[in-house]
Amino acid sequence: MSDTQTPEPRALRSSVRNPRRRPRQSDPDSLKTAPRRKRSKLNEDTFAPPRTQEEEVVNGSIEVAPAMNGDNVRQPSTSRLREVSREESVHHHEKEIPTRLKKSSVKRSTRGDGATVLTQNERYSVKLLPSTPKELRRADVEYRGSLGAAHHALAVTRERAYIWDYTSHVPVSSPRTFDIPFPVRSTDALPLGALVAAGNSTDIGLVLVSATTGKVVYYDSIERAASLSLFQERKSGVEGSLGSLFSGEAVTEIVSADHAGFIIVLSSGRLVHLTLRDAQGKARVFAQFLRATEHGSGGFFGSIRGMITGGSWRRDVSAVHTRSLGPRGPMQAISLTERAELQMWNLGWAGQYNFNGTIDCREVILEELRKLGSPESGGQAEGMTMLDFALMERQSNGKEAATPGAEKPIEMVVLVQNGTSDNCSYVLAELSIAAIRATVSRTVELESYRQRAGHDASSKPRLFVPRPQHTAFVTFGDAILVAELEGPDLDGPEAQLHASYVETVFEDTIYLKQSPRFEILGAAEEDGTHRASSIAFVQGAGLVRTSVAEPSSVPRMATVPVRNRIEQAVFRDALQDGNIIDFSRVSDARYSPDEVEHAALRISDEILSSTSSFVSTNPTSIETQLAYKAQGLRALVNHVRRNYPALSNAIFWQLLWDAEKVAAAQQMWAAFEKHKAANSEKKHKRAATLMDEVCALAEQGLARGSDVPSTDDVVRDFFVHRLRYVERLLFHAYDFLKQLQAETDYAPQAKMGILLEANDLWNEALEGVFQFRMDNAAAYGILPESLRDGILTDATEYAELPGSWTSSEIMLKASVAMCKISRALANDEYEKNEQDPEMTRLVPEVGKEIPRLLQLMCLIYQERINWLASRPDEKNRELAQKLRANYDDTRYDQFRGLADLAQAEAGMKLAEKHHDMNTLTEMIVAETQFSLEAMQENASDNTAIMQHMDAMTARIGAYFDRFGDDWANAYFDQVFSSGHAGPMFNDAQEHWQEPLTRYLRAEPSRAKLCWINDVLADKDYVHASEVLLDTAMKQESQIWHKKVELSMSKLALLAMQEGLEADGVGMTQHDLNSSMPDKELELVMVQNELYEHLRPEIQIAVDEQGALEITIQRVGLRNQDLHSLKSLLQSGLDRVLKQSVLPVEELIDVLTLMESIFQEDPEEHNLEGAEFFLALRALNAAAPNMSQERVEMLMQLIWKRCYIYDDWVDINSTLKQSGDETEEKLKNTTPWRTIYYALDADFFNQPDCYVRHLTPSECIGAACAREDLEYRWGDSDVLDAIIADNKIQDEQLQGYIEDRRLDEWVEACVASARGAVDDAAEEKAEALREEREFSESLWVKGRNGGANGHAKGAEIKVEDEEEYDGVEGDEDVEMG
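^ thats the sequence. predicted structure below, dont judge the formating
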């Protein structure tokens, strides 16, 4: 063993002692026989104050040594104290001696066993032991691990075997190391090894077995073997072999049989009994195969015989365990196959054995598995596989028959795989074997373990039940499962109802991380008195101890409380380096959302108040502790979000608010340190600050009922215990300022200093809060894009949230008051002490802080308003509206007030930020006005002022680009409503033409300025025409104004046409005509003609009322009995006389209901019975903008009223009169005149005519239905009355048609009117012929006279001669 290493390369006393001296039984250098020289536990860093956990976390090198039960020493739990050795106890108490020494840079001693607590709760703890050698902590090292006597651990790799005391409190730097004494290839299975106790001797032996060849090497003393390897070349171990192995057969396990040696398990299922001493106690390797059919020793021939005879040696052995049948008596070996077959042998210490028999337990276990509550588990039972078992040491009740070859019955717990490997569950079955009969007393289905997808464990699950056997441990490749075995009384009434009582017992699984991947390579049990414990060998980490408390000593529970699980994940994992446990493997179905939410909020609150056992109550540095709390809260939300996704949004907001309070406290503490340093520098001693005052005020309000101990340092106490009330500090800062404002004893400079501190506290704290919210929103599941400056932009997102601490009622009140008081104090004190140099310095500093306060005030206002608006009750929503109006007013006053502190620029920037265009406009205008006044006062040198004015002009222009129409609307509304609208309009056209145009065109109410801008600046005549037309049609109420605007609209189109022709671009007559407002002008002309018709009647009136009465008496007599229509006529006439614009329906009503005025000598504007023709003209002009149905209804109404205007009874009586008399009466009727005027103007034949002539029968029912008129009158009473009058007129028309042959009379009117039109046309044509003949004669005479030498007369030339075509037309005649 040339490569063997020893931990202490000192000379062995055995090599220099007297050779005649009787040799001792063991080497004096043995770890156990040679007593160590005791050293004092005191060293130079024993009394140094230990670093707190938060200090170590913040510094990046945490090393948390658990005290009692892994908790903080401050709150020990006597019921959960772990067992410690006397040496550990002394060491611990010595370290706690409160003696002050100079702090050393040497790292402090670790407490307890030096292990790192990975996780801990009331039921169990998991610790990473520090003793593992560094060679075995590498992730790429494979080894087999086991435990031996005297707290020794063994790890066997392909190259070496390592032995060390695994209970060491520090890493073992030099373990006992032995080279593997036989060759092992890299592809071979790992060798096997075991530590061997030497009976009463304290020596420890080592046996190594080759997995592929079966070679065995045994060292009866590791101390002697290590010593001899240094000075002798000869071998120090005993070699041997297991015998001949079959091809492909390998050693899979080595099981200790205590003084009877070992049982070697082969991959074929064969078992080998290995003994290491002969009958005289000398070291010797002896191996024999255990056979189930006959006694005998093993060997090559025996193996061949078994193979040839077809013996039953090939079995799928799952596990082999041994037990003692009595003190120093024989040992019993028990093997279990995958199919639940048990075989037993009695083993003697000298190598002999006896086969006791075989018991098949499959059907018994299978029957119990079928009874499991889960249908899935019961259905998978047919594919069950036995994985492992553990023997139990329970007393027999004396009723069972003895098992063959055994002195006592067998009780065991079997680990059963239920189902296939890729879809399985695991069950623990408690099995009793008595009198070759197996019974299952209890089954427990393991529910907490779920194999990772794609995980391929290098070792199969193993079961351990260490003393005192109240808990079972199951190790998987990636997890350790602990399950309680102690259940209720099996003889009780509940157990008697079911032979296999299934109980919900405590169970939990500790998963290992997979990135980097940690794998359990092996495990072993530790015997204890009250706590059950096991050791796992974890690849990449080392030895991990899992220790479970006795169930009777802790409250019963089915699983670990969610609060503890989250707490461990936060403090043991996220804040502790090197934790190998995967805390994310938590099935959220095991905990309700309410449980998780309550636990998360409680942990968060405990972090804030330092009531968590992981947070120190006496930190050496507040700054460090605040950083630690911030890290803890961030780790909390990260863990909860990843593993409990079903939680509500409100919970994450509450966790965020807690984290914000820590962020605020960090900023406030930094500000406090700054203020303290500044004040102390002035007074050369620790001077009080505002923070001292507000913390004292806060403590007074919180002292009652508080269980937090107070000290003289109220500031420190607050930041350690009271962070949940951090908003009270800000409120008390405002309250202190309010008292300071009325205080007269303070010097002005002192007031300004306190004011600066208060503003600094507010600004630093809340700016830090809102910035923290923006930076960390995503971590709390909040979309960053939903926030602006830390405020949710959509008020509906506040619906499920409780009120935020930053926008509570007291915070809103305090923020507004802080701004007002700060500005008032600064202004007042400056005015009183303007000449004081110190005040001249302090006031501007205060002025710079106030805009920051205003920004915070705005954010608090916005959040409060949005939250109230999201409430379901109407009262809060109304309050939100009031608060919004109050916010607008307050913001306006506060922003404008900044100018008094020479902070106008800051005020404008705030208005920009909050999109307050009205305030920004007024500040810009005020600033401009101030500059103009300054220019007038200082006329000599205006260079700086002019530069400022130019900058303001450029700024205004930039606002148009930045804010668009919002700024344009606010700015132009302001400047055009002032007394300088004209100059401002010119400036706007010069500098901001494009925004001005957009502004003017955005609203119809700006049309009167818009068309001016279109014509003068933009030269856009088309838009100018459209604007004027739209204004005339929709806005104008006076007919004269409408006529002017329509005329100007037409003029703008003509100007556009002229411009196009000048540019060589033509415009078709059709396009021009379609754009012209001729139809609208036609309506205006009709109303003007009506007014001119009535004006002679009202010239004698003294007022408008008199004019209306005269008009009603003159034209309204025919409708005395139709009261609704009379009122309708009266209303229309009133508007006509006032020259208001009438809608076409109202104009038609007036024209068709009024009485015609006939005069013997008619004036120029008398209508002479053309009222109905004017109504048709009005309808035709308005028809393009009306629906066809409405046009038809109005047209029928016009003709109906036209036909009932005359007394057809009287006309019908003229049938016996001559034709001339009848013709004369027809010409005096209204239908005749209406038809005549239409035919004379060729009205119905025009291409754009929308009306036509209707017969009386076609007019029946006009305007008699509600749907015809309900668009005009919403009042049902008025509508019904008008319809009733219309129906009366309808009945009248119906009577004329049926009784007076009205249809025939109308036909006669049409024929007569057409004849009259033709006669008039012939007369006009005859007059034109006579005129033309006269003109021609004059032209001939003039020509002859000129040729005869007479004086030249007038020369007349007919430019245009047209043949008369029967249609009236004018000829253009040019005379010259």
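The mean pLDDT is 81.
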